[in-house]
Amino acid sequence: MASDFTIIQPVRQRFGDGPPTQFEVYFENDAPFVGRAKDFPFSCPNIDLKAMGLLQFESLGVTAGGITNYGNARNILQINGNDIPGGITPGPAIEDLSEKYPLIPIWKSHSLIVPQYVLREENVLHIEAVKMAIAIEETYDTFIIDNIVVFFKTNAQGHGRGGEVVSSGTLKS
To answer: Are 158 and 46 within 8 A, CB to CB?
Structure first.
């Protein structure tokens, strides 16, 4: 079965409360700040709706939903209003030996299965930072998402490609 992919967002996007503070210098200050949420429209031409898809991206600095967050919800990751199983999970961090910062986050790769019938020809990926309780105040999780790509299977009939399928599976103009 043929497959295709769509690059949804090739540029880093920073989510959360605001620009990095003096304590978040490890957060790559060049990443454009998009706010607490953003929608990313994308297309999946000639998609086979009955097939599952694969969503891949990288994250940095995700803390919501971690074991130490005492029940804080995970950040929101949806396609066409449907939650994607697995979501945006917290990534690893290393201890700063200079003790200037307690932990420095490391990039994490995510590969998530998109269930059948979620992807369509025209789609919207929604990412949203959730509110977290830290000490006595509430703040939104602050993180970066990068290199968002979706892989999907295409129809064998070649609809939308401007040709018809011949017995070898190649398109004939």
So the answer is: yes
* Token pair 């790559």 in the structure block, residue: 28
Is residue 140 within 8 Å of residue 129, measured between CB atoms?
yes
The answer to whether the beta carbons of residues 73 and 94 sit under 8 Å apart is no
Q: Quickly state the pLDDT bin for 172 (edges 50, 70, 90).
A: very low
Inter-residue contact 124 to 40 (CB < 8 Å): yes
Taking the C-alpha atoms of residue 2 and residue 30, their distance in angstroms, rounded to an integer, is 37
d(CA 9, CA 150): 10
Count of other CB atoms within 10 angstroms of residue 13: 19
CB atoms within 10 A of CB 79: 23
Pairing of β 13-15 and β 33-35:
parallel
Strand partners, 39: 126
How much is the pTM?
0.82
Sketch out the chain's domains with CATH numbers: 3-172 (2.60.120.1200)
Q: Which residue type is seen at 40? A: F
Cβ burial, residue 59 (10 Å; 0-12/13-18/19+): buried
Is the pLDDT score of 69 beyond 60? no
